[in-house]
Design a protein that fits this description.
Blueprint (H helix, E strand, L loop, with lengths): L1 E5 L2 H10 L1 E8 L2 E8 L2 E7 L4 H15 L3 E10 L9 E9 L22 E2 L2 H14 L5 E8 L7 H11 L3 E3 L2 H10 L4 E9 L5 H27 L1
Parallel strand pairs: 1-4, 1-5, 5-10, 6-8, 8-9
Antiparallel strand pairs: 2-3, 3-4, 5-9, 6-7, 6-10
Helix pairs in contact: 1-6, 2-5, 3-6
The structure holds adenine (ADE).
């Protein structure tokens, strides 16, 4: 069983419509839909926005749905000039840009008293996702790299610059690294698939509403294609 998490309704509705739903269950205000998608057993859920919701959701998938891996699909803000709106970023690894124990001598993003703060995504699945993305979304570019997450919609050019210079991420969003951390602590693989909806700078709020739909279409194509490829 693959657990698929999207934070917002717009990020999961198209996937849910494509699913053969066999059961649904609501836990902690989140409705988990179990069934098949592209012929593969999945549990699909909208976590709600932000790291707490995302981590709780991932833990429930582990505890109550016995998922063997977790995918996080959705949209993100680009941190790189050559990653454009509509393009896709597939995680190599993920970390939290708002984890800050700098006062105690830790580098930004490092979780104190924990061995790992940058969580590596499943390499084989990420490679497959790159291949699939090129075939199902031939008109856009797909990138493999770091996803950085925080409880913050980044829409400021100085903040964006700090995040990209400090962490070297390709895109920023609000859930991926929390899901990655929960998956890591439960010993299961994860992958983050994000389509770019905005440039995470002063243009972000305008871009976001205009391009959200297009970005989600690419992400849905990739998710369905990747499921078919591993079925
Ligand atoms: N999701 C989509 N765009 C984002 C941004 N600029 N910051 C955080 N999360 C996002």
């Amino acid at each position: 069983m693959i657990g698929i998490i999207g934070a917002m309704e717009v990020e999961v509705e198209k996937l849910r419509e494509a699913m053969v739903i066999e059961a649904s269950k609501t836990i902690a205000g989140m409705t988990f839909y179990s069934g098949t998608l592209s012929g593969v057993p999945v549990t699909l859920v909208r976590s709600g926005i932000g790291k707490v919701n995302a981590a709780m959701c991932a833990q429930i998938l582990c505890d109550c749905f016995q998922v063997s891996m977790i995918w996080n699909t959705g949209i993100a803000g680009s941190l790189c000039a050559d990653i454009n709106i509509g393009d896709i970023v597939i995680s190599k690894d993920a970390l939290q840009h708002d984890m800050d124990a700098v006062y105690f001598g830790y580098a930004p993003g490092v979780i104190p008293q924990q061995e790992v703060s940058t969580f590596p995504a499943d390499e084989a699945l990420a490679t497959k996702a790159m291949e699939v993305c090129k075939s199902v979304n031939p008109d856009i570019s797909v990138f493999s790299g770091r996803v950085v997450s925080g409880d913050q919609f980044v829409a400021d050019k100085d903040k964006k610059k700090w995040i990209s210079e400090t962490f070297g991420g390709m895109c920023t969003e609000m859930e991926g690294a929390a899901i990655a951390q929960a998956a890591y602590l439960n010993g299961i693989p994860f992958l983050i698939l994000r389509a770019i909806s905005d440039k995470a700078d002063d243009s972000a709020t305008m871009d976001y509403t205009t391009f959200e739909k297009k970005a989600i279409e690419h992400m849905v194509q990739l998710t369905l294609g990747l499921l078919k490829a591993i079925a």
